[in-house]
Backbone:
């Protein structure tokens, strides 16, 4: 069994010192080892942005695609080989702005992949523009008078789209984050894990200290039942989306792969592609 | 006796035009006639004039005809819109219900048949299609038992009573029209066909069948005219083979999902038309940059924007050749027949894996949707070739990565798929080194660009240019692509009768352009006519760019939404000669 060190490679991330994404990288490596994966059985598919580089910083198969499209690529990988463990990842711009359409539909589709969003409420790689996660009034290079659009709540959207696993964490809480990623990896279906991952360079409002002051850990509510959809929705609204922990999980709904007629346990990529002459003749006969 | 005849049925969309066509043509196919169909329809479900035209022949035909022998009309509008196509002595079978009249100056015979009331007498106006096709069949004097067998197969599942009613509807339609016409019409008596049943399908079905035969097991696509039949076919055929079709939220998801699945080792396709292709462009660049195999079908329709979504056009050529940003290797191939649709799709999957590039199969609406006779298809004619895909690998050292983008002589690197031990590497749309790691090093950049862009040097698909060149030196060389080949050949028969020596080439490999092959035929022609369904002569621009000889070239363009007719080609060539 691989240790978390085997999921490390020798590439130095191009993230700023102090970036929240370092902890997310470490948490993925630990969680992958903890659930018993081998580097070659994991595929990390990422989008574009600072956080999108993460697929290159984990010793596993990795694909760094185009902006906003990590999820459809990741779903393609999983459909092609369901024996793989597939993680999709990227930032809040990637997943909730340009890629929002895919996020909602990936949630609905419920393929067994884990989507980890590094949410820093700003566009970092393009040097500081507003994100759909920015607060109203947030001043950036593209909103010098402050953002006048409402802040998007990915947790509420995920819940309303029929998500079967919704969690949120904070990058400094490596223990919680690692555990949630493990739970996400084990969940049979689509798991969304939104991670507050502060941008130390361009976001001077949503800082580590700011998060520490504003976050509510679900551990504070011992009676909280993450299988209760209405309670989950209420809690998200009560805390204005600032809660961390496992917010909702539906273990009843089958994953997409389990619902596709004729889909086998063995990955398609490992099956024989050839068509028998008898099968071909049958197909041709329909055109006579 | 005659060797070919044209039949058309017209009515409001949704009132049985399609099903009448299907039953009538299925029965004709049983007798071994060659068929070529054309659908005129609108972008709506119910209402609006629609018509289907079929050419019936004792020999292979691949074009719609200039004129019409029999018009079946469910409404007056169908007569008004189509009667001008009728040749002198043609026949109109019209529903007596609307008191049909022939427009002035039309020299045709009108047979009002109570199509609706016969159907209603038998229980439902839905059976109009059976009455109409029965009447058509009777006029041709063809054996009714063959027709009834087709009816049985169409309705057998619904029980004997339904079959019986439909057979009765056919008989009443036939009896009524024969009474009016005094028997089958002598000049519509077709020579017997060879009796060998052909395959009869639309191009999109040929592509779907080719995909299954070519090892495609996944498809991700978004519905669009005229591409949807491919996904509709594959969603029925892939599950028994372990695969599936995913209807995605948009074309960007469709193409990126296909890229993900191809990266992970499964032959996966997507299909769309112009608007969807436009959305896919960035991702096609990703496939080019990451050297991921990818097969995309682009069924061209009238553009730009929503354009003429249900009409014929060939105006996406530039988009397919030049569409992506930056510079990537890409293959664009253009099937020119149903058989091509099948074989080219298998080949496209091979090319995509052998060269690790995106391959676009370009069709046009007429090829994708026109139902045609098709020769027997051979499963093993093109064997599956997965190129440099390696599944068994030695173990890697710590921190060592597999050289997925190894610089090789032919520019193609060994390819591995996730899941396999010893193959770890990185994939990114950022410029990268041999292991896939991002690199902005200028020496590496140039090497990687050259590697990718020289991969296709000297590549020719089978039949890159299809040639019919009987003359060593021709007065006119006609060049076309896609569905226009049959039309060109019919026109050439007439031109040859007039003493013009014509050669014909169909360019099937659009990109990279097969310059040498095209040039050799142009060198031996006094004039070159390039025929295409677009307004800006996009194929001619490719020919001029790559071959030159611009002074010889004339373009014949049609962009009114309709396919070329043989007379269009004939007239254009005559004017030049």
Residues:
């Amino acid at each position: 069994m691989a240790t978390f060190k085997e999921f490390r490679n020798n590439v130095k991330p191009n993230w700023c010192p102090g970036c929240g994404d370092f902890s997310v990288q470490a948490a993925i490596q630990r969680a992958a080892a903890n659930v018993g994966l081998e580097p070659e059985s994991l595929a990390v598919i990422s989008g574009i942005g600072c956080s999108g580089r993460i697929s290159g910083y984990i010793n596993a198969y990795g694909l760094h695609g185009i902006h906003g499209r990590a999820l459809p690529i990741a779903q393609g990988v999983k459909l092609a080989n369901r024996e793989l463990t597939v993680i999709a990842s990227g930032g809040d711009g990637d997943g909730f702005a340009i890629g929002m359409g895919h996020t909602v539909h990936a949630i609905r589709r419920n393929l067994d992949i884990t989507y980890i969003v590094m949410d820093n409420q700003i566009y970092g790689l393009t040097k500081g523009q507003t994100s759909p996660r920015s607060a109203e009034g947030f001043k950036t290079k593209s909103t010098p008078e402050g953002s006048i659009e409402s802040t998007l709540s990915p947790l509420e959207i995920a819940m309303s789209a029929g998500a079967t696993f919704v969690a949120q964490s904070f990058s400094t809480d490596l223990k919680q984050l690692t555990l949630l990623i493990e739970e996400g990896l084990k969940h049979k279906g689509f798991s969304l894990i939104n991670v507050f991952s502060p941008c130390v360079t361009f976001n001077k409002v949503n800082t580590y200290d700011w998060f520490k002051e504003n976050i509510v850990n679900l551990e504070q509510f011992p009676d909280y039942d993450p299988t209760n959809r209405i309670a989950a929705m209420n809690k998200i609204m009560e805390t204005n989306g600032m809660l961390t922990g496992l917010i909702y999980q539906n273990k009843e709904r089958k994953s997409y792969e389990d619902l596709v007629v004729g889909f086998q346990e063995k990955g398609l990529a490992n099956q024989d592609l050839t068509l028998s002459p008898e099968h071909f003749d049958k197909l041709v006969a329909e055109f006579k | 006796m005659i060797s070919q005849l044209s039949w058309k049925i017209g009515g409001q969309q949704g009132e049985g035009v399609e099903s009448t066509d299907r039953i009538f043509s299925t029965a004709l196919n049983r007798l071994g006639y060659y068929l070529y169909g054309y659908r005129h329809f609108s972008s709506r479900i119910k209402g609006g004039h629609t018509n289907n035209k079929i050419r019936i022949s004792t020999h292979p035909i691949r074009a719609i005809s200039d004129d019409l022998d029999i018009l079946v009309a469910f409404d007056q509008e169908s007569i008004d819109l189509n009667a001008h196509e009728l040749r002198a002595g043609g026949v109109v079978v019209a529903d007596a219900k609307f008191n049909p009249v022939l427009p002035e100056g039309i020299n045709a015979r009108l047979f009002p048949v109570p199509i609706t009331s016969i159907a209603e007498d038998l229980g439902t106006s839905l059976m109009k299609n059976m009455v109409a096709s029965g009447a058509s069949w009777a006029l041709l004097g063809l054996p009714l038992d063959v027709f009834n067998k087709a009816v049985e197969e169409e309705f057998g599942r619904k029980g004997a009573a339904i079959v019986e009613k439909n057979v009765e509807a056919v008989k009443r339609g036939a009896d009524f029209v024969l009474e009016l016409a005094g028997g089958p019409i002598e000049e519509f008596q077709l020579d017997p066909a060879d009796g060998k049943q052909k395959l009869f399908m639309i191009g999109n079905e040929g592509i779907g069948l080719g995909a299954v035969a070519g090892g495609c097991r996944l498809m991700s696509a978004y519905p669009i005219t005229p591409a949807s039949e491919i996904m509709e076919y594959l969603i029925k055929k892939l599950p028994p083979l372990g695969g599936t079709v995913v209807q995605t939220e948009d074309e960007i998801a469709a193409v990126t999902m296909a890229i993900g699945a191809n990266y992970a080792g499964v032959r996966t396709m997507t299909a769309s038309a112009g608007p969807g292709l436009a959305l896919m462009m960035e991702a096609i660049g990703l496939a080019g940059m990451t050297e991921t195999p990818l097969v995309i079908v682009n069924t061209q329709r009238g553009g730009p924007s929503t354009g003429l979504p249900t009409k014929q056009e060939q105006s996406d050529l530039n988009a397919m050749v030049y569409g992506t940003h930056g510079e990537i290797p890409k293959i664009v191939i253009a099937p020119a027949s149903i058989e091509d649709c099948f074989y080219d799709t298998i080949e496209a999957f091979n090319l995509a894996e052998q060269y690790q590039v995106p391959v676009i199969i370009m069709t046009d609406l007429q090829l994708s949707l026109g139902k045609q006779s098709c020769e027997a298809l051979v499963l093993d004619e093109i064997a599956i070739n997965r190129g440099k895909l390696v599944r068994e690998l030695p173990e890697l050292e710590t921190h060592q990565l597999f050289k997925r983008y190894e610089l090789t002589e032919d520019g193609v690197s060994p390819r591995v798929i996730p899941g396999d031990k010893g193959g770890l590497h990185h994939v990114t749309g950022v410029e990268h080194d041999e292991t896939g790691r991002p690199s902005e090093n200028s020496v590496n950049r140039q090497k990687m660009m050259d590697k990718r862009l020289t991969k296709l040097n000297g590549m020719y698909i089978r039949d890159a240019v299809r040639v019919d060149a009987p003359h060593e030196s021709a007065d006119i060389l006609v060049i076309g692509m896609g569905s226009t080949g049959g039309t060109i050949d019919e026109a050439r028969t007439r031109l040859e009768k007039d003493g013009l020596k014509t050669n014909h080439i169909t360019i099937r490999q659009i990109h990279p352009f097969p310059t040498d092959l095209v040039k050799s035929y142009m060198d031996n022609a006094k004039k070159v006519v390039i025929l295409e369904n677009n307004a800006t002569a996009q194929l001619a621009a490719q020919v001029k760019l790559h071959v030159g000889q611009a002074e010889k070239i004339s373009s014949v363009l049609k962009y009114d939404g309709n396919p070329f007719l043989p007379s269009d080609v004939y007239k254009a060539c005559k004017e030049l000669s």
Remarks:
- Residues 143 and 526 of chain B are 50 Å apart (CA to CA).
- DSSP finds 18 helices and 21 strands in chain B.
- Residues 4-197 of chain B form a domain with the Pyruvate-ferredoxin Oxidoreductase; domain 3 fold (CATH 3.40.920.10).
- Chain B has a mean pLDDT of 96.
